[in-house]
Specification:
- This protein is mainly alpha-helical and about 475 residues long.
- Helices cover about 75% and strands about 0% of the residues.
- It has helices at about 10-15, 15-50, 55-80, 80-100, 105-135, 140-150, 150-165, 170-175, 180-190, 210-225, 230-255, 270-285, 290-300, 305-310, 310-325, 330-355, 360, 370-395, 400-430, 435-450, 455-460, 465-470.
- Helix 7 (about 150-165) packs antiparallel against helix 14 (about 305-310) and helix 12 (about 270-285) packs antiparallel against helix 18 (about 370-395).
Length: about 475
């Protein structure tokens, strides 16, 4: 007999609940699909309007703005109510998307990407927060699964949309294609969310916006330094970014409203180990932003194929997560140990194989060997991910469980933004823009994957506290 206290999928997906589910899932889908569309079309964009040296900035600014938007979502919910906050957020995202579609140059595009990221971060925050407001408690778990699953949908649809338009030479239409989805989302919000949804349960929640803003500044310091070919400026940018991060940690330890829970800033604690592994593994995966360019420039892959091969990292992450979920503590500990090694070795293999143009010239099937390490990078992360997240919840100090869970999203976005900034620095220094072309792409690919293999490699030595958290 079905437990009457647990909502079924049919309860969630039929009638008015079904339309509301579509609205909240659509908020995540618009953001997530856009991420994969832009990753796929970006090589075509820089070929058309230039700005190769700002390649990584498209991701850096987007994610930095997403951090700020996500942090401000409780404030938007409090100030405007759920429906109005959603509609205003969609308007910001649409404005940014139109700016990208009309961009005559890279600086214009970066402005649009920043607006997109801010609107997308707000959409993510509002979509997850709205689950508790819109649905009965018995439906919360299934609603969260549905909303989160939109990232999987984006992995399949984003490269297809971006690849088709890039392949036909109409990359701008990829941005325009997002607008009908945003319009449908606005219609669902307008018709399915009503005044009784404006309970505003987070009205008294205060976010440490000053420290979050300084996190964004630390990333931008590295991004600005990445534009210089002088190693001294590169090192100075990294040092400045790290110094700001250390200052944020010290301020957070003394703050009444914390960004991270107590014990997060020591690698000797369970929380410190868990957060360090989450951060380092996330940094390793940010190399995916360059894979479409390398596959097209070095191996002559079409935008559509390059987009789907890039999505193999996300597919591996999903596969690894299914393999590692619901395992015994002993098995989970072994996977937490093995995962970073698998990811690090896979990145090292990409450093050795991806620059070899002979793979695509020596036979139709030789280049397919790249599929193995591309899957492996994500697979290694997936081996660890579910167990790292659940152990964060268990390791949080009493009364700081909500802070600990919210900090996961902040940390992951920060790691992605910093990873993109560092990737831009490494590739530019290795010759991505000068000499550029195939030679520059080969040099940049080798340097990027060698350097970034160190991130999950370091995580492999920091899993002690994470394993003790079992």
């Amino acid at each position: 007999m079905q437990n009457t206290h647990t909502g079924s999928w049919s309860d969630l997906l039929r009638g008015r609940n079904g339309l509301r589910s579509l609205a909240l899932a659509g908020g995540v889908a618009v953001h997530a699909v856009n991420v994969y569309i832009v990753t796929t079309i970006l090589p075509s964009v820089v070929n058309d309007i230039g700005g190769l040296e700002y390649y990584a900035w498209n991701t850096t600014l987007f994610v930095v703005a997403s951090i700020l938007g996500s942090a401000l979502s409780p404030k938007a919910l409090d100030r405007f109510g759920l429906k109005q906050a959603f509609l205003l957020t969609i308007a910001v995202f649409v404005a940014g998307t139109m700016a990208c579609a009309l961009a005559p140059s890279m600086p214009w595009l970066l402005v649009g990407r920043t607006a997109q990221g801010f609107g997308g971060g707000l959409l993510l925050g509002l979509s997850y927060s709205a689950v508790r407001i819109v649905f009965e408690e018995r439906l919360w778990s299934r609603a969260m699964v549905l909303v989160s699953s939109m990232w999987g949908v984006a992995t399949l649809s984003g490269p297809a949309i971006g690849g088709i338009f890039a392949q036909t030479g109409h990359w701008r239409l990829a941005f325009w294609s997002v607008l009908p989805i945003a319009a449908l989302l606005a219609l669902l919000v307008q018709t399915q969310l009503n005044k009784q949804d404006d309970t505003r349960p987070d009205a008294r929640v205060k976010a440490p916006l000053g420290r979050i803003s300084m996190l964004a500044v630390s990333v931008l310091m590295v991004s600005v330094a990445s534009l210089s070919s002088n190693w001294a400026w590169n090192v100075a940018g990294i040092a400045a970014g790290l110094a700001i991060t250390v200052m944020i940690a010290k301020a957070d330890n003394r703050a009444g409203i914390r960004l991270f829970p107590t014990g997060s800033y020591s690698a000797h604690t369970a929380l410190g180990s868990l957060y360090a592994c989450i951060c380092l593994l996330s940094i390793g995966v940010t190399t995916e932003i360059y894979i479409p360019y390398f596959l097209q420039a070095i191996h002559g892959k079409s935008p559509l194929i390059a987009g789907y091969w890039t999505a193999l990292m996300s597919a591996g992450w999903t596969m690894g997560s299914f393999i590692s979920s619901s395992r015994s503590p002993a098995t989970a500990n072994r996977l937490i140990q093995a995962g970073p090694v698998v990811s690090s070795v896979s990145l090292a293999l990409l450093a050795a194989l991806l620059p070899l143009s002979g793979l695509s010239q020596g036979g139709a099937h030789q280049v397919n060997w790249l599929i193995v390490p591309l899957l492996g990078v994500g697979l290694g992360v997936g081996f660890c991910w579910p167990n790292l997240l659940t152990r964060v919840f268990r390791s949080a100090p009493k009364g700081q469980e909500n802070i600990a869970s919210a900090a996961i999203t902040t940390l992951q976005l920060y790691a992605m933004a910093m990873g993109a900034a560092l990737a831009g620095m490494v590739t530019n220094a290795a010759g991505f823009t000068e000499p550029g072309g195939v030679q520059g792409a080969q040099q940049a690919a080798a340097a990027l994957f060698v350097v970034f293999a160190c991130a999950p490699g370091l995580a492999a030595f920091m899993t002690g506290g994470a394993r003790r958290a079992a």
